[in-house]
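Hi W., the pyridoxal-5'-phosphate complex you wanted:
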Amino acid sequence: MRVYNFSAGPSMLPLEVLEEAQKGFVDYNNSGMSVTEMSHRSSFYDEIHNECIALFRELLNIGDDYDVLLVQGGASTQFEAVPLNLLHNKADYIVTGNFSKKAYKEAKKFGDIALAGSSEDKNFTYIPKGDALNFREGADYVHFTSNNTIFGTRFTSVPKTDAPLVCDMSSNILSEVINVNDYGLIYAGAQKNVAPAGVTIVIVRKDLIESPNPLCPTMLKYKTQADANSLYNTPPCFSIYMAMLNLRHLKKLGGVAEIQKINEYKAGLLYDFIDNSSFYTNAVVKEDRSLMNVPFVTGDSELDKKFVKEAASHGIQSIKGHKLVGGMRASIYNAMPVEGVKALIEFMKKFELENK
Ligand SMILES: *Cc1c(COP(=O)(O)O)cnc(C)c1O
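Structure:
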């Protein structure tokens, strides 16, 4: 039996995508080989690779002035790659959670990095905006994290600055419509909303990658993969294949605008239920709430533990909150069906009745 998997990542994939991969797992497209076995220089793989990149371009409406790179090392490696490629004089970072804090710390090793704003004063329960942000004149870039996976906040508009925006979109890429032209660079690990872990997507304006730090390792240089169509070395072929299938699935569904409506509906159901309950609470400032990750607590840590345990026996998996927040966290990425959110709410009602 398949469960509703609320894991923050790796997370659910659409059943249709898993089944499609299963069909061709041993013998892909009459090649007599599995995608896990075939040469990344073969024509079979080439088609997968190029379709994956083309679908990213189509679904996110990415212009020709951007490269779309498929790299390895997870989003965490991008915390280093970004300054090594883009930093010449100085850059500003907005810290709204654990991952952006890591990115900020990593970047500081490479030059003049300043904090443009932070929400750490209130345990990252809001997004700093307007006067709370201080950008320096002439910064090479401003880094921020569009969706904060652990704390359940998101930027509902891009920060206003003249510098190119660099965004960690690991946990909400393809979940809502964006204008790629607002950004200098977008990166995302695949394992939240795209594919199994392994591939990391980098969308970068071509003019930004021409003069990396001379010490930048070849493998971290965007130009290396840009010049080689992301085939400089062996790519994570199977993860890219799964991404391609998932992007095909999203396209068939109607694309990003369509999934955004579904995501807003799902998140709305859950937040409305929490807000109308006197048993559960969500600590995030309402206007900054994430559509993807919904942390909530009962206010009693023993009860929270019991919730997590009992939920698992009701087909609701991996609902335990991150240790920095505690309680529960429902990650409701693109692949979480509406029925999954409804099942969670039903369980929450039942648990409340039994434990009030
Ligand atoms: C999960 C996550 C990361 C870490 O990704 P890895 O691929 O494990 O390195 C970074 N940033 C955000 C916003 C995330 O959600």
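The first helix runs from residue 15 to 23.

W.
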